[in-house]
Amino acid sequence: MSAPHIPVLLDEVVAALAPQKGDVMIDATFGAGGYTRRLLDEGATVHAFDRDPDAIAAGRAWPEAQEEPPRLVLHPRRFSEMLAAMEHAGVARVDGVVMDIGVSSMQLDQAGRGFAFSADGPLDMRMSQEGPSAADFLNTASEGEIADVLYQFGEERQSRRVARAIVAARPLATTADLAQVVRKALGYRAGAPKDPATRSFQAIRIHVNAELEELDAGLAAAEQLLVEGGRLAVVSFHSLEDRIVKRFLREASVSRAGGSRHLPQLDIRPAVFGRVSKAIRASESEIARNPRARSATLRSATRTGAPAREAA
Question: What contacts 188, CB < 8 A, 6 or more positions away?
Fold first, then answer.
């Protein structure tokens, strides 16, 4: 079965994971299953996570999910919950973890999910389809709270102006409502190279889904779960995500010793990741096939035998 959307940097991700027959892998962001499909084809067993019930429902139709025992094990959970989920599944260690951060193509393409302003839809943006929506946040939060979200997660320099306009225009109900308010606040002219509403939509989506907190927790869980020699591959799509991944791998790949020349050595902490790759980005040919690949960055690393830092 082929996935309806091919994820970006697919060949590069599979090369970084180097799946072998019998490996146990985690696809932390199942989506349409593009990475999972390739891992299964290489003979791996895949534990796939997704908080979106639509993605999980589609995965249940895959033949590998119906084998006995299944080679595709679906977890309708956030990937920050990997540790608990794998413990419940009786799996202590895995050979690889792949994470494709952010909103999926299917979510963006469905106007009814409210992630994009390319087509009007309800102001929703919830990956899990549960909990407070984007409309709930924008229609109840203070001007200061909204401005902080726009600045921190969208890097919107005029966040206060946009927040003031949002509060003045409440209640907002649709993606078109929000896009119109942001464009008016920032003086957008049709035909400009980039729609200024993009930054605000990104920021609000990240906030509604706690995406950066999820990423932090997911990376820590991967560190705990990967066996020595296990591979981690993370694809991010904007600078905030990539900074978190880059910082995590930098800190995790450096050996540290406590103490000083004046004090006894208190602690030695060996690096928990080695063979950290340089950032890999999509080729021009891939970008031509899939413009969404333009902003993608892949970083990967290999787990050492050192204890996980939280368990050290």
Answer: 182, 195, 196, 197
**What CATH code is carried by the domain that includes residue 160?**
1.10.150.170
**Mean pLDDT in residue range 125-142:** 93
Q: Is residue 158 part of a domain?
A: yes
Per-residue pLDDT tens over the stretch 64-123: 999 999 999 999 999 999 999 999 999 999 999 999 997 655 555 565 565 676 778 999
Instruction: Give the whole-angstrom CA distance, residue 262 versus residue 264.
Output: 7
Q: Which of 88, 79, 107, 29 is nearest to 221 (CA)?
A: 79
The token pair that represents 28 in the structure block: 């932390």
Q: Do 245 and 169 lie in a common domain? A: no
Which residue, chain included where needed, has tokens 């905030």?
A: 240
What mean pLDDT comes out for the span 29-57? 95
Cα dihedral 287→290→296→297 (10° resolution) = -60
Q: What sign has the CA pseudo-torsion 45, 26, 30, 275?
A: negative
Q: What is the CATH number of the domain that holds 70?
A: 3.40.50.150
- The one-letter amino acid at 281: R
pTM over 0.85: yes
pLDDT interval class at 3 (50, 70, 90)? very low
